Records
---
Amino acid sequence: MLVIKNLHAKVEGRDILKGLDLTVNAGEVHAIMGPNGSGKSTLAHILAGRSGYTVTEGSVIYEGKDLLAMDPEIRAREGVFLAFQYPVEIAGVNNVYLLKAAYNAIRKHRGEEELDAMDFLSMVKAKMQFMEIDPSFLSRAVNEGFSGGEKKRNEILQMLVLEPRLALLDETDSGLDIDALKVVANGINKLRDPKRAMVMVTHYQRLLDYVEPDFVHVLAGGKVIKSGDRHLAQELEKRGYDWVLAEAAA
Amino acid sequence: MTAMSEVIHPYAENFKALESLKAGHTPAWLPGLRRDAFEHFSSHGFPAAHSEDWKYTPTRSLEKQTFTATPERSAALAASDIRTILLGEMPTQTLVFVDGKHDPALSHIPSATAGLQINTFDKAMESDVAWLRSSLESESNWRADTFTALNTAFLQNGVVIKLNDGVRLETPLQLIFVSTRQEQPSACHPRILLHLGDGAQATLLETWFGLEGAANFTNSYTQISLGENSRLEHLHLQREAAKEFHVSRIAVDQQRNSHYLSHTLNLGGLWVRSDLNSRLQASGAETIFNGLYLVDGRQHVDNHTRIDHLAPDTRSDELYRGIISGHGHAVFNGKVVVAKHAVKTDAAQTNNNLLLSRQGEIDTKPELEIYADDVKCSHGATIGQLDEQALFYLRSRGLGLDEARGLLVGAFALAVLDRIVSPDLRVFARQQLSAVLPQSAVMESA
């Protein structure tokens, strides 16, 4: 589904990614861990198409297509979804409008008909209930005045509604208390599917207790320096990152 | 001086024609007032380029035009021509003017409302002459302002509205001024007089609308007096056609505990100047100015506001927002004057601008003149672009770039419209905004 080869990228002239390789197949859940500043969020942003990053080398192939050549909205319509670490507040645009516009943009791209407004609403309401989000949030401005936890739950709600093929989760567990973490994890697990892949960027192992990854990668200095299964995350939790860094340097 | 007399000449011709009109009910005092005002105009001409109030809004392009005083009336307008600018479906008092002249067929005065007098200027000159005379003669702004002098010199058309003490209107009053396409563009100078008695309450919608191809000059003057404890919500909507010149001045006098809530939406026109002034004459008076201007193409839109805090314990709050694109040029000048005795004044002013093109220009200037101690005054002006993070967020959800931009522009504008209290006016204002900014989806998105 996703093949990243030798990816090099710069931000404001600084090298952040320095030859990153990663292959993600349908049905897999990957966790990308690593110390602060290792390039984890940069990777998520580049995959979603945020501007301000310059890819200097390498390639990203998604479903056989050159992902980096696509505008952000085309990536979204092709099934890529980024759950933001810091969801943006947008005054004056309400949640349900954004959900509907996004949902229909994706359907239109696939050549499908727009969903009837009533059917759409009942579908969204059921998913809000699952995410334990009050129905009043529908008519509120996107993320405006939401608490940190509400913003994260709203991201997962959007993901549940849009049903992406490749979900990128950027530090989705940060700032969540244990109850909110469980709700968010339930949302993510609900979407696990043999046809779908997920890449979770996280600093801590916490989320991985609830969403069990198939693969764990350690990103440091702009590269994947170690890969393993979920036991690697547990080991990192116990021993920190230093031993992996030392191992890689040796 | 030759240049100036050339500019004045067509106006002098028009003035002569007006004087020779054998109008039925011109009261004896009116010609003298007009003549004084015209003499003021002809000796001063249009504002000099170096005058502070007109620094960023030269009148050259207006001076180059020649306007007739008497528009030829081609086919009568049909109700369908103005349907898009009518306030809802509900029955409301509506007066329609076409190129300055009252159109009884399009107007709609459902039935007499106790305590409300709403008349065209000619009607008012037949009935309530004493009040009209004192209201017109006491308004001396024409001695200081060219456009007010012109309006006074050409006093002929307009509306006079009086609300008796304690009368509260349930439905908005609607005044519609339509400008039409003509072989020879014309000028009109409507006057609106509105008085609310003590404790009276009303909502006024003033709509200035140009039909496709119109290229006229409208120079309106609205004078409002608000009695003690009265309350007025006032929406001034300007959607003139793309080649039109529009000057408007609104002057408000406020008595004790009166409340004035103003919304000025400049969404059209080629060359536009809007002046809005409230004078808070007695304690407890409050004025709220909201404004929105969309300036695109080669448009020039200048908003000058002024709030005079003339008594203690008065309050003002102002929010003007502008969206500038293309080669548009916007000007905002917000003056707040706190007189020596006006202690405990509370005045806040904000002007935010979205500058969407390299060629666009915005000149914004807050002006505070504070002569009293113990006051609370704040002001702030910003000029910015669309939030890149918000744009990316929307696009990452599948919305196209144009759609995402439109949504954010609409959301920026909505912050002004959300301050409209009357639900009817708020929906109406959104409809009007969505007509000029279809990408904003403001009818659905907020």
---
Amino acid sequence: MFHRFVGSLRAIALIAAFAVGVSAALFAPAWAADDWNTVVANARKEGVVVVHGAPGKGYNTILVGAFQKAYPDIKVQYSGAAGSVEVPKVLRERQAGIYNWDVWVSGPTNALGTLKDAGFFQPLRPLLRPENTADDQWIGGFAAGWMDKDQAVFYAFDGTNQNPVKINWDVIKKDQFTSLADLAKPEFAGKIVMHDPRLTGTGNGTSQTLLHNVGEETLKAIWRNNVVYTINGHQIAEWAVRGRYPIALGLEPNELKDFQSQGVGKNVMPVPDSFYKEQQISVGFGAVGFVDRAPHPNAAAVYINWLLSAEAQKLWVNLPRGTRRAGIISPYSDMNPRAGVSYFLGQKEALTSERTGLIRLAKETIDGAAPRSSRESK
Amino acid sequence: MTAAGAAAHPAPPLGGLLRRLHRSLELKTVVYVAVLATVLVFVLLPVLLLVAFSFSVGSPAEPIRIGLDGWRHAVENPTVFGSILNTVKLLVCIHAISFPIAIGIAWVLARTDLPGRNGFEFMFWISFFMPTLAILLGWIMCLDPEYGVLNKVVDLLPFVDGAPFNIYSFWGIVWAHLACHAITVKVMLLTPTFRNIDSSLEEASEVCGASRLATLRRIVVPATMPALIAILLLAMIRAMQSFEIELVLGPPFNFYVYSTQVYSLVGQEPPDFAAASALATMGLMVIAPLIGLQRWISFRRSYATVSGKMKTQPVRLGRWRTPMTILMTVIVLTLTALPVGFLLLASMMKLFGFFDIAEPWTFDHWRTVFTDEAFRQSIGNTLTLAGGASLFAVVLLSLVAYFTVRSKFRGRAVLDFVSWMPSAVPGILFGLGLLYVFLEIPVFRPLYGTMWLMILAVVVSHMTFGTQILKSNLLQLSQDLEEASTVAGASWLHTFTRVILPIIVPAVLLVGTTSFITAARDVASVALVATAGTKTLSLLQLDYMVNGRYGAAAVISFVVIVMSTGLALLARVLGLRIGIRH
């Protein structure tokens, strides 16, 4: 009797297991299937992937053009609008029950600061192929690239040596400037331009690196040293190149590249690594998330795996940027992290409070300072 | 048909007249209610939402919760009040200089026998099409204290020591505004208004012994007072919202204005919409009484100068003809040829302003743009958007202006007041309000992501400018034209389309053309409602600029100018054919 009862239980358990297996096979997301060919075939049927990415033709060439070349059957609908415009828009869309987006490629600020908390992303790990998650394929191992605390939804593939302090050495003599603390010296007052540290982004990241190297009091002294603040990256590059403001804090490499490729500003260069106790790896726009309720999940799976692949990362470094993918060297040597230098990933969610605190401190220090109308010359 | 033609119809019997009057009244009421509803939903509602944003706490992801954090952030910022003071100083200086100059230019163009005056007027239209940033970069190239071309030339003079000009200064910013649009916009708006003055008024003044200047001061200016006040207010609001010039020229001397503060709050990640909306609400509170004052001045008495007996005889310039022609040529070339030159330079230089590199010239930017698939798509989208917006703007804004000025409906003052709102708040915040309206009202949701909503967004964002142009012209029309048409048995629709519109056709065409350029050039109004499939030239240009590809962005500007100039030429030819001839 007992055996019959146990046998029945086994039969029920077997049937239940079979039913669970069948349901899992039927109802599990298609992109989770082991058979990559099925995912790709389904992606081709979907035919479209909707991607938010970075602005500009350089990014467009890779995030649209190169993918399109690799998968001609999957059309990329792409938007490179600024996060400040796109984020409120997509959140409002979702509240209205409109789910348009598949893949989100951006910097971590908005993604972690606003989108993640709104449930905008779904777990990324299940759709990643083994060759993209192997530890030996990434500098510092695969897990080092997670930007969110839970290591689940937003992954950074970009890894660019930040080098935030650049100097026009035609104007400033090397023996005049021998440490980062020199930025606070009165002799450099009125000679420094900085990406505005009162806002999120490059200026905030630059302040973070300086904080890690010179401490809070010196950082405040630097901010007060008659620095010119702007949010126009091209203007910072042009001023540094022309020598109008020979010390540039937060000068983006791609802005400088435009000038140097034409033979001007060749001596606008980063200060030596030895000036830093600790350097920052910047992610730029190079992190990716899989959007919750993506309308084209298979196409999204194909896109994200392609983006993390060595093939795509070889193209990414030409932006110019660096990559965390091991064995791929940026042709722009300043971008590559170097051996013997200590680095930190400043845009991780765990360091959000440090960055927010720096914005507050910058506002208090700069806006609280006396107006410098005397600088208006004529 | 002209007013005189309408009046020439035989009068129908009394019963028929009453029936027709009843029918036309019904149609008129229906149209008025539709126009009022459109304006309330698509203009007033987004503005009310903007005020609500200022009291909301939390991220845009969350439902609105009430709080004062936004106002606290806005007010606690120690630079805000300095910025507002800077804005006031700047506005006073810009308009104290540009307004008298614009009045003088518009009077010469509209009322005198200056040779080529139509061509000169058209050149001001072209100047209006110029993108601010391209003109600004050009002037920096001339007036930078260290490498400015003009500074270097002047420095060669024996009695000059060092660079005399510095564009990175308060007066540099004032100059940039004057050279960009401050004078141009006023001339564009004032010229049609001055043209509608009955020249017998000027003749009477001169017969009484008044000089030309005295006639301008005591006859022309008072007769066009509503238009002058509206234009001044409009120009002030536009200058208040513009931020490109201050954003580029302000940082070296720590100069911030109201609009750059709003821009910073909106541009940061995540954007602080609550604080930005609080600042925008403060701006609204300042502008609202001015709008009321403008309305009071405009409607306290009649300013009609166009009647069935109107006469236009140009004032003879006499010995002033040649000097005036030379002066006008210099002004027009400074405002148009120079910026076009800057734009062409920017589109053909490897590095704008760097003449000393090995090979400074290139066609790469043109190749980049013309081989970009996105460019071809954007051209199609832009033509659809701009064409649709021009047509819709002409219809809607003509009706808004007509009902505001010529009707006795209840609520017309509200219509007038609300028509100012789109310009009185920063574009991106108004766009956010519109986005909420489009997504929260289910009936509009299926249209989300289509060209229809973009057209609506552009027309609404252009509402203040377009309505004020038409309103100023309508205020100058005497009631006797409509009365004559009605007495002759014409319906309201017939009177509106066959009597009123032909008289104000230059202003209508101006509205159509400026709506076209707004649609082709404006980013703020369309950025939030555009999708990847409906990208326009302005958004493509923004992509290029954000990536530092100023050369490619200059090419797009050039394309937009060519398209707009073509349309403007067509509009003027049509205007000459359709419009009444003075």
